[in-house]
Amino acid sequence: MSSLSSNLPTSPSTLRVGCVGGGQLGRMMALEAPRLNIDMRFLDAEGSSCPAGQVVGATDRNGVERIVKGALYDEDKLAELAEGCNVVTMEIEHVGVQGLEKLEAKGVNVQPSSRIIKIIQDKFVQKEHFSKYGIPLPPYADLPNLEAIHDAALQFGLPLMLKSRKGAYDGRGNTVLRETTPEAITTALADLGLKAEDLGDTLYAEGWVRFYSEVAVMVVRSTNGETRAYPATTAVQTDSICRVVLVPARNVPANIRHKCENIAMKAVNALGDGATGMFGVELFLVENGVDDIDVLLNEVAPRPHNTGHYTQDACATSQFENHLRAVCGLPLGDTNLLVGAAAMVNVLGAPSGDINETMKGVNAAMSIPRAVVHWYGKGCRPGRKMGHINMTADSHAELDTSLSRILELERISYD
Ligand code: ATP
Ligand code: MG
Ligand code: MG
Questions:
Q1: Mean pLDDT, residues 156-184
Q2: Ligand 1 cavity residues, CB under 6 Å
Q3: ipTM of the complex
Q4: Whole-model pTM?
Q5: Which of 114, 126, 221, 411 has the fewest CB atoms within 10 Å around its CB?
């Protein structure tokens, strides 16, 4: 185990940031950090072979190891990560809140704070918080027992969305209940690896939202509460996984895009003190009559987000740079779109799990003008997020020419 005392010689302006998690989001932060004179280190179960570990040198100039190998819930490892850091941040919300609280009690600067992670990492608590602050939400209910599932189905109708309160991603943790027979309920619970007796604080219910589009807005908030939104985007999901992001949001009038950006900023501000860094805000658009569109909040992630990857090539300041600026207390960067239109396509592991098959679209994208490849360095598995391709153009029409080629290569189709 290496240690770093705060009086080791270093450039006076070098900031040390410890990041909990060294996956692709950490890797993309790590790639931005040196330009800002920020030195990053990571805690990850995989150790130095994690995506972030692959892009940072093994040690910093004081000989301190940049990768702490350990579980994100391991309090000793968290403390080791934090040693000598100006700030500790995270690239994932599924981390140990108690460990973060202990760091804060010792005076470590944790951004976003443990209080924010505690609210967000339990989706039901998150809903209760936003509801208190008047953020528009789909109807939702606590599920302490089987009876509550029947009550929610009666109240919200079918289908009914059952969601895991904690630990969910890419739709893993959600299941759709289409009828309320005992068999259907047993099957829905079994989908999530649960039985009726596991109900209590494991799941909650959401009314089915008949949205016509999903929108995502990236918001950055500084330590002093300044909040800026990136432009509203269309987030195309297939099988609950984000596949394509279109910017500015398609078929969404400018006033609704601005409404989305305002609701996203209001939600992040409603989190209050300690809501620092990037936040990915997922929204549903619901048609309500001829000219009216309701905006409902689905969920918020307290970190850079898949729907914000386009900012790397389409905005003056990427979401990764702005996250680092915000958590370090540096001035926030500009969030405007610098191009007429942009898109991001996720590259998922091919169904065969074969890396060469997976790389086909990426290789072809290299010869498409204004298409930029970002690779994560992860082991290939079917359906796993392996990388993404950003595209920029002067207009939607121009973008669509190269986008349709990439969609074909990645075998993506959507309405
Ligand atoms: P992420 O990877 O974004 O963290 P997650 O596992 O937290 O995903 P959600 O965002 O809750 O899952 O849901 C995944 C997708 O399922 C949504 O993007 C949306 O397409 C659909 N969905 C979620 N909630 C509802 C709902 N109440 N009604 C209809 N569809 C929904
Ligand atoms: Mg989620
Ligand atoms: Mg989501």
A1: 97
A2: 138, 161, 163, 168-174, 206, 208-209, 214, 237, 240, 282, 298-299
A3: 0.99
A4: 0.96
A5: 411
